[in-house]
Amino acid sequence: MALENHITKAVNVLRSRICDPKFIFSNDSPDSNYSKLKFMISSSVTEACNNSILLLGPRGSGKNAVLELVIQDLLQQYPDSISVIRLNGLLHSDDISAFKEMARQLCMEHQLLFSKAASFDDNSQFMVAMLKECGLAHKTVIFVLDEFDLFAKGKQRLLYSLLDAMQSITSQAVVLGISCRLDADQLLEKRVRSRFSHRKLLFLPPSMEDSQSLLVRMLTLPIDSSFPHDYAVEFNKNVRVSFLLRFKETLNKYLNIDSSVKDLLRFLFCAVSHMDLQTGFLSRENFEVAFSSIQRHPKLEFLRTDCSELELYILVCMKSLELKEQSLCNFNSVMKEYKSVHDSFQTSRNACLRAFEHLIHRELICFTDNRGQSLSVEFRPVKLLISPAELHQGIGANNSCPVS
Fold first, then answer.
1. Which of 52, 301, 323, 397 has the largest count of CB atoms under 10 Å?
2. 372: how many CB neighbours lie within 10 A of its CB?
């Protein structure tokens, strides 16, 4: 019973680590984005200067997680010197709604009465006045603009007003833009770009080696009084040895598909959740189950189970046309290829057309554009939405398997 309790406790410890951004991203190395961002913002707070920074990188690379950790640390370090205003381009890309939301949050932060009837100009002037007041009170306003590239559309009045107000020596603010577009700063107008600090932090998916070292660190139990010494030592030895011999293959297979930090943690959480509570150790099967449960392929499942023989023939013919460098084709060209492959062609044209339309409905193929909507389905160009490897794997597991 005591061993079972320790095993359950080990699973809970590993899960809590996976769900704790501080354990994952809080790296005191001076080369880490966490340390760089914390230094930039804290310098702006302590030296009473303005700053604007872009956090760039693909989704799931940890931009928001690192920023939230830095803001939490700074709020604890300077509780009376920082206020945070958050805007999202998906919600506030319109200048009027952005200024209204900014004014509302500023009023909440400083316990002021917010007026819903205030105009665009009123909110803009209020923002400038608040920046001056905060500067005189030695308080830094941190503006977090998520989906920054969406604010760069249109006339960019919000960005211009905000960055222009920061040119005053009495204001004290930091603008943090978060974007998946690496060229986000190039979207800015000349008048906005001239007021931007052009400081950028690039967040990239971890390399294969970084991912492996991170996982080993996360899966290693502490050697202290929390767990029986022999169990913790054996568990850690199993992780290190088995990881190099057995886990690594499954992990590499997963990382070749998706190497973002967010999805990697989801994969690891699923693997830990399937740990055998009888043995108390992680096994390769745990990672295999996690891989199969996360990487579901509805199109591949449809190929294996629900695709008719005629539909499989159509897909194989489209693949054949791709190999002949005819990537764009229509129903008529597919039927021509079908007749050349299937000598005993006796299927009616209407049945082939219904099968063709069913493949479009299941999104295994699609029309290349919407410009030919007035044309009949038979003449509109289409393309495959599955890779040759997926097609080969799918038809190989199907009882009705045409020869390609």
1. 52
2. 14
In sequence order, which residues have a C-beta less than 8 Å from that of residue 239 and are 6 or more positions away? Answer: 216, 219, 220, 282
**Structure tokens, 26:** 């809080």
Q: Name the E strands within 305-355.
A: none
346, 368 contact by CB (below 8 A) = no
Domains recognised in the chain with CATH numbers: 31-202 (3.40.50.300), 207-294 (no CATH), 299-396 (1.10.10.10)
**Strand 365-367 vs strand 382-384: parallel, antiparallel, or unpaired?**
antiparallel
**What does the pLDDT look like over 183-241, one tens digit per residue?**
898 999 999 999 998 899 999 887 777 777 888 888 888 888 778 888 888 888 888 87
Q: Please, which residues have CB within 8 angstroms of residue 224's CB and are 6 or more apart in sequence? A: none
Question: Does residue 53 or residue 27 have the better pLDDT?
Answer: 53
Burial class (CB within 10 angstroms; exposed 0-12, middle 13-18, buried 19+) of 313? buried
Q: First CA to last CA across the chain, in angstroms? A: 58
Counting residues of the chain whose pLDDT is more than 70, the rounded percentage is: 89
Place of tokens 């492996």: 212
Average pLDDT over residues 237-266: 74
Sign of the Cα torsion 241, 244, 245, 250 reads: positive
C-alpha to C-alpha distance for 44 and 398, rounded to whole angstroms: 62
Q: Are residues 130 and 106 in contact, defined by beta-carbon separation less than 8 angstroms? A: yes
pTM: 0.71
The Cα–Cα gap between 289 and 275 comes to: 10
- Taken in order 258, 271, 304, 394, the sign of the CA dihedral is positive
Distances (CA, A) of 245 to 140, 212, 253: 51, 13, 14
Count the Cβ atoms, other than its own, within 10 Å of residue 73.
16
Q: Say if residues 250 and 295 touch (Cβ distance below 8 Å).
A: no
